[in-house]
Design brief:
Length: 456
């Protein structure tokens, strides 16, 4: 097979160098190795090595080592470019010096702390203040942990991903640490405890020799840094391309040894009991509103279907409470979420249908109350008038009584006019009482409604 002169090997080796203690002056060396694997032919080709996305070539490149910086419009990153000529078996090293931008600065952490202080002070006179104080202290612990973690010596790849994880955590703290949702969640967890799940990581040494291995596992994208409790010595990193957190650690493995690591995380794949109870209560109340109406049977059927869905969701979650398999919980959550969407859609239909129910006959009790009031007024008129210093047999007394009765009559008439108008506009009135709307045909029929008779 003929050797391709374009074939060569380029390796990018990123090495730490800290010549000063200042954040702004610490630097990183990127060593680009160009290797000619041929033993007989020399080659001349191009180097194209992408730079991390955080690098600003105008400010962060200290020494380009003779290479050019170009922007790749396809990958949206800056590239190290250069032409290289290699003799057979020759290796050339290009050492590019870059400012270490992968560190959270004190200014960044102080800005977040001030933002938290502003929020906690604004909550002093509210019922959430005690809970907010706990969240505030927790957020400060998270910031201190960020500064402690980034001071540890790690490899360059891990250093970059650790920085990206810290940036994500600071953004989450600033935006969500003292949010209403966070405070309500803590209140609920103080009463019922934190729902937990287990994330299992497995690793194996296939070699017949003992060795140190890097164990790495991606976490589900839905998880935040605050959702990871027990990391078992793993470092929490962030994969910018996949947009998710990653756990990584180095561990010693014997020959052909397998290991399992159980990570404790927050169980976010669960429909809360409060949400299930709220939907159940709303369903029962709505069904009660349709009693003695043409839609009573329809509402009962829909309500029964909703309650059945809620029971199945609660039962499936209870069955998985003791399971350590996160995949089962996630699959069950997807299924339960779909079922809850169906239940909420049915519940919404019942809510919309309430406005279509005609006024009940017993609404006439308002008129009876008015008549009763007039009667009681007539019975007690003498006592009232005498207490006011007016003779009961005076002509003006009857004018007062007549005026009151007239006023009440006008109120009663207005009530009946509005009531009758509402009945006439009712879409669910029997056929023949008016033109049938287009939406009437698609909704459930009224019970006891007689079919329309044709005119002869």
């Amino acid at each position: 097979m003929r050797w391709n002169p374009r074939s060569f090997l380029i390796l990018a080796v990123l090495v730490f160098s800290f010549p000063a203690l200042s954040y702004a002056e610490s630097e990183v060396k990127v060593k680009v190795l160009a290797v000619n694997p041929s033993g007989s032919q020399k080659i001349k080709t191009m180097i194209a090595q992408p730079l991390p996305s955080e690098i600003d070539p105008a400010q962060d490149i200290i020494d380009k080592a003779g290479l050019e910086i170009r922007f790749d419009s396809d990958s949206k990153v800056y590239m190290l470019h250069g032409e290289v000529e290699l003799k057979p078996r020759e290796t050339k090293t290009f050492e590019v010096r870059i400012r270490d931008v992968w560190q959270v600065t004190p200014d960044q952490t102080e800005e977040v702390k001030k933002n938290l202080e502003t929020q906690i002070n604004a909550l002093k006179s509210t019922k959430y203040y005690d809970t907010a104080k706990l969240l505030y202290e927790k957020a400060l612990e998270g910031i201190d942990r960020i500064l402690e973690e980034q001071s540890r010596p790690v490899g360059m790849k891990q250093h970059i991903e650790l920085y990206r994880a810290h940036v994500q955590q600071l953004q989450d703290i600033k935006a969500n640490a003292l949010s209403l949702g966070a405070m309500r969640q803590m209140e609920k967890e103080k009463k019922k405890g934190v729902p937990e799940a287990r994330f299992l990581i497995t690793a194996e040494n296939p070699s017949a020799e003992a060795k140190t291995m890097t164990v790495r596992s991606a976490l589900p994208k839905e998880l935040t840094a605050e959702d990871v409790f027990e990391k078992q010595g793993f470092v929490l990193l962030y994969n910018q391309q996949q947009k998710n957190y990653v756990l990584e650690k180095e561990d010693q493995f014997a020959a052909r040894e397998s290991k399992k690591y159980v990570i404790t995380i927050r169980d976010i794949w669960r429909i809360s009991e409060d949400e299930i109870a709220l939907n159940r209560e709303q369903t029962q109340r709505l069904v009660g509103l349709f009693k003695e109406t043409p839609f009573e049977k329809y509402a009962e059927e829909q309500g029964s279907a909703i309650l059945d869905i809620l029971d199945r969701v609660a039962k499936l979650q209870a069955e998985l409470d003791s399971s350590l398999t996160l995949e089962d919980r996630m699959r069950a959550f997807v299924l339960n979420s779909q079922q809850m969407n169906v239940a909420k859609a049915k519940l919404h239909n019942l809510q919309q249908l309430v406005s279509e129910v005609p006024l009940k006959k017993d609404d006439a009790h308002i008129l009876e109350k008015i008549k009763f009031f007039v009667k009681k007024l007539a019975d007690t008129k003498d006592v009232v008038l005498m207490a006011m210093g007016i003779r009961p047999d005076s002509p003006i007394v009857w004018w007062i009584i007549f005026g009151i009765i007239l006023f009440l009559g006008i109120v009663s008439a207005i009530f009946y006019v509005v009531w009758l108008k509402k009945l006439q506009e009712d879409k669910w009135s029997p056929k023949g009482a008016g033109k049938t709307s287009k939406s009437e045909a698609s909704l459930p029929p009224q019970e006891g409604a007689e079919p329309e008779k044709k005119k002869e």
